[in-house]
Amino acid sequence: MEFRAIIDIQFKEFDQTVFDKSWIWLNDPEIKRLTDTPDTDKEFREKWFQSLKDRSDYYIRSVWRNDEPIGTIGLKHITSTDGEVFLYIGEKRYWGKAIGLQMVQHALDYGRSLGLSSVYALVLKDNINSYKLARRFGFEKERDLDEERIVMRCYL
């Protein structure tokens, strides 16, 4: 897929700075709802963060604009054939600026570099923007996961 980046962003290591920022982002009620983030405490999240360095089933990068972290992108539940794409822009002033295009492209490129045959995303049925973004990259609805979420898959 070809598109011209509207805003220059960089993908960097998901470090302590971004982890701390993500704690704030994912506790914002609107972001928490849109990302379907479960309730957790800081200690649980810290253990998760520390586990990342030893995991081969999880790829996560932070997204930066200039010198500021603004979001997160990655693949989780990575197997030899697929993985789950996830992303969010935590800095709301960057919503609607087409940054999600670059983020999804990064995740798909990484999935291809691993030799995955497909990737999937869990999308809230009422999150129209995420649904449209996924469709733009060729994700198709695979099935209803439950009353609130669908599984969408993109073959690489």
Keyphrases for this structure?
156 residues, alpha+beta, four-stranded antiparallel beta sheet, three-stranded antiparallel beta sheet, 5 helices, 7 strands
Give an overview of the whole structure.
By secondary structure, this protein is of the alpha+beta class. The chain is built from five helices and seven strands; from the N terminus they run E-H-H-H-E-E-E-H-E-H-E-E. The chain has helices spanning 16-25, 29-34, 42-51, 99-113, 128-136; strands at residues 10-13, 58-65, 68-76, 84-89, 118-124, 140-144, 149-155. The chain has a four-stranded antiparallel beta sheet, sandwiched between helices. The chain has a three-stranded antiparallel beta sheet with strand order 5-7-6. The longest helix is centred in the last third of the chain and has 15 residues, at 99-113. The chain is globular, with a radius of gyration of 15 Å. The termini are close together. The model has no long low-confidence stretch (mean pLDDT 94).
Shape: globular
As laid out across the biggest beta sheet, the strand order is 1-2-3-4
* Overall strand count: 7
What percent of residues are in strands? 25-35%
Taken in chain order, the helices and strands follow as EHHHEEEHEHEE
Structural class: alpha+beta
User: Helicity level, as a percent range?
Assistant: 25-40%
Q: End-to-end distance, in Å? A: 12 Å
Model regions low in confidence, pLDDT < 50 over at least 5 residues: none
Give a summary of the structure in a few sentences.
The chain is built from 5 helices and 7 strands; from the N terminus they run E-H-H-H-E-E-E-H-E-H-E-E.
